[in-house]
Amino acid sequence: MRIPVPDDIPSAVELGRVHYVGIGGAGLSGLARLMLARGVAVSGSDAQESSTLDALRALGATCYIGHRAEQVKDVDTVVVSTAIDESNPEVVAARDLGLRLWPRAAAVVSVMVGRTVMAVTGTHGKSTTSSMLAVALTEAGADPSYALGADLAATGSNAHEGGGSEFVVEADESDGAFLAYSPTVAVVTNVEADHLDVYGTPEAYRAAFDTFLERIVSGGCLVACVDDPGAASLVDQARQQGVDTIAVGFGPASDLRGVDVTVEGATSSCVVEQSGQRFGTLRIALPGRHYLLDALLALAAGLRRGYAFDALATGLGRYAGSRRRMEFKGEAAQIRVFDSYAHHPTEIAADLAAARSLAGTGRVVVCYQPHLVSRTKAFGAEMGQSLGAADIAIVADIYLAREPAEVGVDGRMVADAVPLPPDQVRYVPDRADLATAVVTVVRPGDLVLTLGAGDITTVGPQVLALLAESGGPPADV
User: Is the domain covering 12-105 a CATH 3.10.450.50 domain?
Assistant: First the structure.
């Protein structure tokens, strides 16, 4: 459901008792952690038990299983996940009682009051870039607070209440939430049409970034990747409006530029230059030029805040990744399994390039689950084309979220567009058959990559379990 962001948003400590409907989700659980750290009384409900709820209870939250009206009778503010329906009994009760009813974006603003906001947005790479920025600033001694879209591998959490002045936030554009923030440093990774179920047209999606540009506070700065045409256009617009801007990339149009780029195995590196000054080498423990660009954006944002290159680069070098971003799931029978959140054609292509670097002499076997009917309808053919970078592609049916199924729109559209020989492409409509489908085609030395924003993340562990149980495929498969 979509709830408007109010004009007047007080600090989190003024909200009274806060109840989260959908508290087990990545976004709301992180907010709950931040408010608990500030002494705010927190409660929430979710559909099922999870380790996330256990962790929140340990911090002092009251967590309920199931949604019931009586669970909000003693609260002051109710924060609702976009995944929650308007008929939810807690939402209905909150309205009947006249409680403060907020979307997640408003609650995020409340925890950022009084902080220097560093907001990271873009079509792709938001979670990685914001996570890198948080880690780099921490290494530089900033002790930032942060609210990210993915758990950091090093901490197992996507939120932290720091003692410093900076607040790093992943500014989600998917539902327009990023337009509620007023950043001092705005980082834009790229701008490419997506979320047309919300925006309707590519033009409307692009226009939202124009509005985001206007949200930068006076004296603030835009940091954007000019290797991406959409972000480069935003840089041009910002400069015309007199906004301080740092263009980042590998090309000559960049103010802060990565040169001598090397991607080898699980690491990527480049030499960093700015305005003719050579800072030194940036090396990260992630494979792929796109991850290196994310790191350069984080570096530029940190430099803009006055932190030293060496400290920021050290932090970026120690960045251990985030959940579901080329996350290593394990190895069995000489077959490695990784998982990533990629669900847009550009993201698929980038992560498959990274997988190719990791695979070495082995094959890349991708298992992809399309996400959203509207996205598959708009970009299904391009998804299939991107999957052609693998050696073998297994395509699942669409993960249905927020939208009903539509006749004629399914995973077969994607599979039919994959430019590989027919025996190297397989459409598997039954979710329960995916792990077995992967195991029947892999051989020792292969790298398996599960891709998608749905429940495809559970397939990797299933593949590993089947391989361990069977002893693996024969070497001559």
Answer: no
Q: Rounded to whole angstroms, what are the CA distances from 337 to 287, 331, 332, 358?
A: 15, 6, 8, 11
Q: Could you write out the DSSP letters of every residue in 157-218? A: -SEE--SSSEEEEE---TTSGGGG---SEEEE-------HHHHSSHHHHHHHHHHHHHTSPT
Is a pLDDT exceeding 80 seen at residue 196?
no
Residue 477 has pLDDT above 50, yes or no: no
Q: Which CATH class is domain 114-318?
A: alpha beta
In sequence order, the 6+-apart residues with CB closer than 8 A to the CB of 277 are none
Strand pairing partners for 367? 394, 450
| Paired tokens of 413 | 């559209």
Query: What is the rounded CA–CA span in Å between residue 463 and residue 455?
Result: 14
SS3 assignment, position 301: helix
Alpha-carbon span 121 to 259, nearest angstrom: 24
Q: Which CA distances in Å does 274 have to 57, 132, 172, 247, 384?
A: 47, 20, 29, 10, 38
Token pair of 264 as six digits: 């080898």
Confidence of residue 56 (pLDDT cuts 50, 70, 90): very high
Render pLDDT for 152-177 as a digit per residue (tens, 0 to 9).
877 778 899 999 999 999 998 887 88
Q: Six-digit token pair at 52?
A: 């996330």
- From CA 116, how far away is CA 165, in angstroms rounded? 6
User: In 38-178, which ranges are continuous DSSP H helix?
Assistant: 51-59, 89-97, 104-112, 126-139
pLDDT the model gives residue 81: 84
Q: Report yes or no: 164 and 143 within 8 Å, Cβ to Cβ.
A: yes
Which residues, including other chains, have CB under 8 Å from residue 317's CB and lie 6 or more apart? 282, 283, 284, 285
CATH class of the domain defined by 327-470: alpha beta
- Structural tokens at position 453: 């924003």
Q: What DSSP designation does 75 have?
A: -
pLDDT tens-digit map of 70-102: 999 999 999 998 778 889 999 999 999 999 999
Q: How far is CA 34 from the centre of its chain?
A: 19
User: In the chain, what are the domain boundaries?
Assistant: 12-105, 114-318, 327-470
For residue 28, the model assigns a pLDDT of 92
Helix axes 289-304, 126-139, angle to 10 degrees: 50
Taking alpha carbons only, the member of 183, 209, 201, 194 closest to residue 124 is: 194
